[in-house]
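**User:** My hope is that you can spare some time for a protein that puzzles me. I have put the entry right below:
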Amino acid sequence: MERVVTPYEGSGHRPWDDAAEIPAPLRLHRTTVSPRWVDYNGHMSESCYLLVFGDNSDAFFRYLGIDEQYREGGRSLYTVETRLHHRREAAEGEPLALSLRVLDRDAKRVHVFHEMRHGDTDVLLAAAEQLLVHVDTRAGRSCELPAHLQHRLDALHRAHAVLPVPDLVGRPLGIRR
């Protein structure tokens, strides 16, 4: 079976720069709806929304400094939980513009929020809320983020704290009566 490869794997990416202003939110990933992502209803299949959000996470990881070299050292970020919110359809060939904000963090975990917007109209297509955990991949358990990554996440969290918390964050799933 072929392994999943993200668009940023083995390629250049926007690296962290301590002196640079931190965008709020981060805008690290853009793509176009691939024909392979379109289902029998003529729009992007639900699983492909998660694929695109995963690519956005990968761009974020690399921005932080979590790349192949970091993972070869036996550490990585894993997704613990994801909530997807589908708002509008996306058709083949349409441009997608992703953003990400850090909502919270502690020594081992990062809470992020993604938005997927139409690249031309800026209409919100979908959102995703994720909880990530830092893992020692050799031991198979969570571990604290190194100091330099905690410093970067603190800076991101401060920069993103000026943004209003999206209404979708922490919303329970269920039928409202």
Remarks:
- The chain has three helices and six strands.
- The mean pLDDT is 93.
